[in-house]
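Hi, here's the filled form for the chain we discussed.

Project: internal
Contact: R.S.
Residues: 98
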Amino acid sequence: VGLFEWTYNMDKWEENAFPESIYGSVLWDTHLYHFPKDGEQWTSRNGGLWKAMKAYRWDLSQLRYFSSMQGGRVIVGEFSLAGLSLNRQETKQLLQWL
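And the returned structure, exactly as it came back:
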């Protein structure tokens, strides 16, 4: 069974919410999206890599915690690089970091 949840709701679930002994194999999915605010740009010239990493940090922390509470069965099914104007090297760094 695949279940979806946003990272901002993950702290609302109890530990081992769907035990495998009752529900079978359960895989959680989430999506991560962050974009520059209106009028802001994330470019290689203005620290865009750092800004993008800062935006994703909280989600990744939630994801790690939730994964530990749900037996490690959580995936990121979608994320986006939309809104970024990073050079090739910084784009690669961000992808490896994510």
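Let me know if anything looks off before we file it.
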